[in-house]
């Protein structure tokens, strides 16, 4: 019995930690989705770029990946701003047969980024060999006679806590500051915001920068627990996409809950169904959300007057 | 006196001249290799290795005084082109033997031609079981077939670990599935119970759920078929969860390359893995070859390189022993081969349904003090194996 409890709790911990990081990846995409009504399909590639920044900072200057959050995040912010200003905005203004050609543009940006990474950094797998990569806290070290043994990985926990801190500060930024409020106004009703004197175009630029910065931070947090290679983006774009749909397009709090649900669901699938089924589980959630919960988690929250 | 000096000079000149003539005589060997296409990487490794061997042989006086000149023909990794190359080598160039090719499919195509024309063919790196199971008389193979890759690991398990149970984790690809199936068969032979056999999605971030489940089964051996980054993550998370098993074993190349240790760090300690060859192995000439190769290419060669390098030495040995350089005499000499090369011992035997197959020992490596060391078979060991391995809690 205690064995079963141990497996369950360990799986739950793993799912929560993973979910927290997933949420951070998802929030960036959901923000961009909310304000610009487009899915940024270069999201995972932006994360990849941030991971390379963190990687090289570690290799060349021995800067810990957690410290590089402070460097990579602003860099990614400006990169996001540049992408929006010089690539997406001009395309938005052009009349075209396809209304979603900005989405196609992001696909192109993603391809360019990952191919450039292949050219410059080769397709080798890399990871930052930080010393604490496999250190962990153990329940039995603190409670000698514990009937079950649980472990809490140090880098996973630190990454999770930082993800929570970043998410909370984002929350404050969006609810308490003028810029934050303007972003939310733009997301809710672009035309009304425009009439209220919000510089919508500028908000778009800021939002894209913010989204890129968030996923950049997520990249730095992933580096101590994962590895990187140029083609890694697609995988995380997909995860972010599932979270955005699950959370309700454009809802920040929805994305947080969506990320946690996906993380826990994946872990539980791995333990109780089989790890080979994890990708299947991801798509089951995706389709189930589209069919049964078109508004995502945000719709439920709105029904209970919780969300913003 | 003058005359004498003159005669001496003339005779000396004649001698030098004839010696020069003899040395100038060449032995042309044409080798089919995939030099373009998706398998070009391995073709390149082998080409470089053949060249190193040829240079060494020539520096030491060639084969029976003949200078070896290598020519490479690009098979593009396609069997039909490989077959055409083999026909050209045999019919046009009248070479009395064939050596080389990389993939199993190309080797098979060449083997069919060679057998038909009664020309001996030394297969290099083609690993499919069937090549040496067709009752061919003229086909010889240096490397063990794919079913024998884990032979060394099996004997290590049988003689040292004596496990009762095994858990198998493998990536959900064709390669991973084959590896896992092979282990299930091995487990049956060794009397081990397979307590868990689970596949995972390659590239997964978190293996802890599956590992927690594995922990509850308490297997003696944890066997993983993974590529290098999954391998490193698996071992890191096994360490995190403090899963103690009698042995952690890797079933594929992912565990045998230096990147595994770089990424898994101390979690990689004491992990064993099966491999055909490694630059650290104690075969004569292996280290020298590996260093020479590294000096040229910037990194250590894989077993493909060592095998190609040694294949030329096998041919040298065979040609020196052959009564004459006719295909049948070369075949007889090949059959009688019994040497130890940088790739390992080479001896072609007929047994277990195979013909002219080299049943060399495959190696077991263990990570000891952050380095891959050969631990099995004991006669080639560079270090004594560490077993039983310490529990995670007691490490450090």
Explain this structure.
The complex is a heterodimer of chains A (308) and B (396). Chain A has 308 residues and is mainly alpha-helical. Chain A has a single domain, classed as Orthogonal Bundle (ABC transporter involved in vitamin B12 uptake, BtuC), CATH 1.10.3470. Chain A is 75% helix and 2% strand. In chain A, helix 2 crosses helix 9 and helix 3 runs antiparallel to helix 9. Chain A starts with a helix and ends in a 5-residue tail after the last helix. The longest helix of chain B has 23 residues. Chain B contains 12 helices and 15 strands. A 7-stranded mixed sheet of chain B has the order 7-6-8-9-10-14-15, sandwiched between helices. A 3-stranded parallel sheet of chain B has the order 3-4-5, sandwiched between helices. In chain B, strand 8, helix 8 and strand 9 form a beta-alpha-beta unit. Classes of the chains: A mainly alpha (308), B alpha/beta (396).
Short description:
The complex is a heterodimer of chains A (308) and B (396). Chain A is an all-alpha fold and 308 residues long.
């Amino acid at each position: 019995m205690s064995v079963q409890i141990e497996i369950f709790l360990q799986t739950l911990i793993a799912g929560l930690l993973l979910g927290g990081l997933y949420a951070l990846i998802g929030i960036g995409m959901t923000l961009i989705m909310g304000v610009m009504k487009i899915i940024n399909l270069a999201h995972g590639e932006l994360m990849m770029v941030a991971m390379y920044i963190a990687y090289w900072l570690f290799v060349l200057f021995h800067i810990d990946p957690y410290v590089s959050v402070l460097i990579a995040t602003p860099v990614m912010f400006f990169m996001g701003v540049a992408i929006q200003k010089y690539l997406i905005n001009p395309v938005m203004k052009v009349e075209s047969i396809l209304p979603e050609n900005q989405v196609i543009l992001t696909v192109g940006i993603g391809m360019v980024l990952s191919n450039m990474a292949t050219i410059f950094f080769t397709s080798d797998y890399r990871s930052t060999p930080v010393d604490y990569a496999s250190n962990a806290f153990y329940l039995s070290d603190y409670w000698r006679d514990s009937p079950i043994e649980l472990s809490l990985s140090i880098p996973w926990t630190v990454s999770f806590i930082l993800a929570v801190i970043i998410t909370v500060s984002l929350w404050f930024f969006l609810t308490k500051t003028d810029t934050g409020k303007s972003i939310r106004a733009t997301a809710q009703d672009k035309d009304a915001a425009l009439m209220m004197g919000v510089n919508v175009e500028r908000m778009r630029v800021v939002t894209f920068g913010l989204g890129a910065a968030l996923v950049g931070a997520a990249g730095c947090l992933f580096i101590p627990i994962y590895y990187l290679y140029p083609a890694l983006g697609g995988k995380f774009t997909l995860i972010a996409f599932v979270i955005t749909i699950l959370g309700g397009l454009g809802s920040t709090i929805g994305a947080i809950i969506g990320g946690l649900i996906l993380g826990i669901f994946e872990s539980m699938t791995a333990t109780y169904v089989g790890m080979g089924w994890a990708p299947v589980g991801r798509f089951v959630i995706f389709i189930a959300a589209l069919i049964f919960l078109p508004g995502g988690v945000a719709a439920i929250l709105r029904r209970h007057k919780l969300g913003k | 006196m003058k005359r004498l000096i003159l005669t001496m000079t003339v005779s000396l000149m004649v001698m030098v001249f004839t010696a020069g003539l003899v040395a100038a005589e060449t032995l042309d060997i044409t080798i089919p290799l995939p030099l373009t296409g998706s398998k070009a990487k391995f073709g390149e490794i082998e080409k470089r290795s053949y060249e190193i061997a040829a240079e060494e042989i020539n520096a030491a006086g060639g084969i029976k005084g003949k200078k070896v000149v290598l020519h490479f023909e690009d098979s593009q990794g396609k069997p039909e082109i490989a077959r055409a190359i083999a026909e050209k080598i045999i019919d046009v160039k009248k070479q009395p033997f064939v050596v080389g090719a990389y993939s199993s499919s190309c080797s098979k195509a060449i083997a069919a031609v060679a057998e038909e024309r009664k020309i001996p063919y030394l297969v290099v790196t083609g690993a499919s079981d069937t090549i040496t199971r067709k009752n061919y008389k003229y086909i010889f193979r240096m490397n063990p077939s794919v079913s024998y890759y884990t032979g060394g690991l099996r004997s290590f398990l049988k003689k040292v670990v004596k496990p009762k149970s095994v858990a198998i984790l493998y990536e959900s690809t064709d390669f991973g599935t084959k590896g896992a199936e092979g282990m299930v068969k091995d487990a049956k032979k060794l009397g081990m119970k397979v307590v868990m056999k689970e596949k995972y999605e390659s590239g997964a971030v978190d293996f802890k759920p599956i590992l927690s489940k594995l922990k509850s089964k308490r297997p003696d051996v944890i066997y993983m078929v993974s590529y290098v980054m999954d391998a490193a993550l698996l071992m890191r998370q096994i360490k995190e969860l403090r899963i103690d098993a009698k042995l952690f074993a890797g079933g594929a190349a992912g565990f045998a390359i230096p990147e595994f240790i770089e990424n898994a760090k101390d979690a990689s300690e004491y992990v064993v893995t099966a491999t055909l060859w490694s630059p650290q192995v104690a075969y004569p000439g292996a280290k020298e070859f590996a260093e020479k190769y590294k000096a040229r290419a910037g990194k250590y060669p894989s077993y493909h390189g060592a095998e190609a390098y040694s294949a030329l030495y096998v041919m040298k040995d065979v040609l020196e022993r052959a009564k004459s350089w006719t295909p049948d005499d070369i075949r007889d000499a090949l059959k009688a081969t019994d040497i130890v090369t940088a790739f390992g011992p080479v001896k072609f035997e007929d047994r277990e349904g195979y013909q002219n197959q080299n049943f060399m020992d495959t190696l077991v490596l263990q990570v000891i003090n952050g380095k891959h060391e050969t631990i099995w078979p004991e006669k080639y060991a560079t270090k004594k194996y560490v077993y039983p391995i310490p529990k995670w809690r007691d490490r450090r």
